[in-house]
Amino acid sequence: MGEVFVIVEHRLGEIRDITLEMLWKAGELGQGLSYKVTAVIIGHEVKSIAETISDRADKIIILDDERLKNFNADISKEIIAGLIEESRPTLTLIGNTSWGMELAPCLAVRAGLPLATDCIDIMIKDDKPTAQRQMYGGKIFSNVSFTPSAGYLLTIRSGVFPKDKIGDRQAQIVQKDLPPKDIPMRKDFIEFAETAAGDVDITQAELLISVGRGVGEEGNIPLIRELAEALNGLLSCSRPIVDKNWLPKYLQVGTSGKSVTPKVYIAVGISGAFQHLAGITGAGTVIAINKDPKAPIFRTADYGIIEDLFKIVPVLKEKVLEAKKG
Ligand SMILES: Cc1cc2nc3c(=O)[nH]c(=O)nc-3n(C[C@H](O)[C@H](O)[C@H](O)COP(=O)(O)OP(=O)(O)OC[C@H]3O[C@@H](n4cnc5c(N)ncnc54)[C@H](O)[C@@H]3O)c2cc1C
Q1: Residue 215 and residue 269: Cα distance in Å, rounded?
Q2: How far is the CA of 96 from the centre of ligand 1 (A)?
Q3: What is the residue with the minimal CA distance to atom 49 of ligand 1?
Q4: Of 1.20.1530.20, 2.40.37.10, 3.40.50.2300, 3.40.50.1220, which CATH number belongs to 202-325?
């Protein structure tokens, strides 16, 4: 019987969604191929995390120690490599998060196992996985196969699998101790710096007007904000707008921003990169204003306006204000 390891990601006592998503995929593979699902939790005082997922795994391996309170790739790598050596799982799934992106490459080198990163799906045939990935900003899907190996490491993109429970399992809990030898640590944890929460919450908005790089310069942002206000909606944005410091991070939509669920989402001067679109999968009606007819956003949008935003937005705002007056 094969086994799938899921490396549990948690922060400040909370399990992260990516863990539930990986457990869903591991569970799905487990159902089809009778693989055992094993969750590996490294941390301190993680009992409640184990309880949260006890019906999603067949086994939970816990390493609980004060020294593991904060994530450290050096130490996690040694621990997981030891567990892999002991159990020889067919697959080890790690989140393609900032945490996982630090851990997975050094673990691959330490364990001598092949690694495919940022996978959006996994297929298994004859105990050998094929990973699906995206290339060129999501324009092309590629299937990556591995040369035969004792095991395979995959990092999984956030948001591609459901968080739901799949199957009904009852985990056996196995406590393990830290390896006795000293593990050289090249990094020290300093602190968690939470981003500003902001005074508006775009995740609760019913109508969002999102501005992208097409707006050209910071001085043009008020134009889009005025449209948002006229429509009684909230302003949000794509990542380049935050990177340029034109708007705060808490207004960013997408994989490294927020997932939003408005009834109406108006994308203004946004191309529709997959990292942005991943944040609007829960949106109702999507309307795009973009002067490039080939912009990928039009593949997602329910309505599209192919035109210069500087022609459309002022007219739209005026029409809305007129309608309100009258
Ligand atoms: C790890 C990672 C995480 C990321 N996370 C996110 C994320 O959370 N959110 C996010 O948004 N991005 C994210 N990105 C960036 C993402 O890949 C894209 O680069 C970004 O979404 C592009 O933003 P944009 O559409 O505003 O800009 P662009 O791609 O430059 O698109 C601008 C669009 O405006 C149009 N345009 C230009 N002028 C006009 C005009 N006058 N009128 C009308 N249309 C006009 C253009 O035709 C173009 O389609 C991430 C990238 C990485 C690598």
Answers
A1: 6
A2: 21
A3: 271
A4: 3.40.50.1220
